[in-house]
Amino acid sequence: MPLSKNIITKLNPRKLKESMLRLPAIVKKDGWKLSYDKLADALYFTPSIVAKDAVLFSVSKELNIYVNASSDIKGIFIENFSANFVKHNEDFKELLNVLNKKEDNQIFVAKDEAKAELYEKALEASLLEIFSNKDKLLYPDKFA
């Protein structure tokens, strides 16, 4: 679900960058956790409930962020995680082994929180790296 044209044109690049730089504090404050939907092959790094005013914005081919109209980042969503993202980001290959506790029929979470935290930090770093490399962005003009 991409952002509507109105919200895309209202994204504030400066505020979005500030939100990116504060990401570790936001993650801690809002209690973000990793979860993997096996059926959808999607990785989520979000609070247990994503803010109602947040919409999905594509940052790169697989990586998306939940963002609100104030340009605050509310979560991260990676589509085609095992089928494609891991192939281009080898550091995340073992993450599926960490997300080994079945929460329901298709959703997996980490049994070992310490191991999951290492991947959470790596995911934050990957997102920052993508934001700093305009060649990897789908909408570089929105992050000027």
- SSE string, helices as H and strands as E: HHHEEEEEHHEEH
Give, in spatial order, the strands making up the sheet with the most strands: 3-4-5-2-1-7-6
Mean pLDDT: 83
Shape: globular
Which sheet architecture does the biggest sheet show? 7 strands, antiparallel
Total number of strands: 7
Query: What fraction of residues sit in β-strands?
Result: 15-25%
Class computed from helices, strands and strand pairing: alpha+beta
- Could you give the distance between the termini? 23 Å
Helix content: 25-40%
Whole-number count of domains: 1
Number of helices: 6
Q: Low-confidence spans: pLDDT under 50, at least 5 residues? A: 1-6
Whole-angstrom Rg: 15 Å
In words, what does this structure look like?
- The chain is of the alpha+beta class and 144 residues long.
- It has one domain.
- The chain is 38% helix and 21% strand.
- The protein is built from six helices and seven strands, in the order αααβββββααββα.
- It has helices at 5-10, 13-21, 23-30, 81-88, 95-98, 113-131; strands at 33-37, 42-46, 55-58, 63-67, 73-78, 101-102, 107-109.
- A seven-stranded antiparallel beta sheet has the order 3-4-5-2-1-7-6.
- A hairpin with a 4-residue loop joins strand 6 (101-102) and strand 7 (107-109).
- It is globular, with a radius of gyration of 15 Å.
- The relative contact order is 0.19.
- The model is unreliable at 1-6 (pLDDT under 50).
